[in-house]
Amino acid sequence: MSKPLERTWVLRESPFDVQHYTRNESLFAIGNGYVGVRGTFEEGYPGDLATTYVHGVFDHAEGEQVPELVNAPNWLNLTIAANGAPFGIDTGFLLGYERTLDLYRGVLTRRALWQSGSGGPVLRFAFERFASRARQHVMALRARVTALDQDVALTVEARLDGNVSNEGVRHWGPWQQGGDPTGPAWLLGETMQSGYALGMAAAFENDAGVAPEYVDAAGSPTVRLAFDLKKGATVTFTRLVALHTSRDVAQAQVLPDDAGDAARRCRRRL
After folding, report:
1. Checking DSSP bridges between strand 85-86 and strand 213-217, what pairing results, if any?
2. For the whole model, what pTM was predicted?
3. CATH number for the domain that contains residue 84
4. Total number of domains constituting the chain
5. Handedness of CA 184, 56, 69, 25 (dihedral sign)
6. Mean pLDDT calculated for residue range 107-117
7. CA–CA dist 228, 134 (Å, integer)
8. Assign residue 30 a region: left if phi > 0, alpha if psi is -120 to 50, beta otherwise?
9. How far apart are CA 198 and CA 57, in angstroms?
10. Which domain holds residue 176?
11. Is the dihedral of CA 195, 180, 44, 109 positive or negative?
């Protein structure tokens, strides 16, 4: 990419700007015209507003004056712990940080150099995400972790979190959910007043050859894995997420099997 193009199209944050974190959640958002995703961190951050909006999915909650766009399940939720210490920008020691939004390609990238604590392992993290323009129902997340100075025991949990609200206002009824270690985890639910159905499914893969465990947590189907990462080694995690609503397809096609099929088809293209 040429320098003029980079200056025109790339938004950059380095070092981490704690004072304007909430503002930057908006600035580093991604979208494709069908979904819009606020630029929160995969691992979370105190006071963040993890938000995914879907085109046309409104609901009028009891006691509220007007309908509002409904916050869909959080598909970014990814927890990575090193020797039991969860990675976070607000935990341990942040040794380096850069976040860029490439508006030309629609890709959000974040890199962090992090130490879990005094004497703890030093790891390099790299995250990428985008909402596909070619397949508007599909979103993708990739995370790479490198152990720089010592072997480390990694534990990873990837969730579809349906326990979401619009700043305390809840719009979703009870979720149906499911999954297994070899297939996508999924959620299926309806908005309480408008009755829009939403199905979301997520396939989660790793290149370490580690078999995941499925955990059927209420409203938050989770894939969990644990393994040792050797010094100097890198592991890559890829999450492919697809969603449909009853606004854009027939009611039967909202079922998570359809979203899971879309995720599996896109797997071959990444």
Report:
1. unpaired
2. 0.90
3. 2.70.98.40
4. 1
5. positive
6. 96
7. 37
8. beta
9. 9
10. 3-60+67-267
11. negative
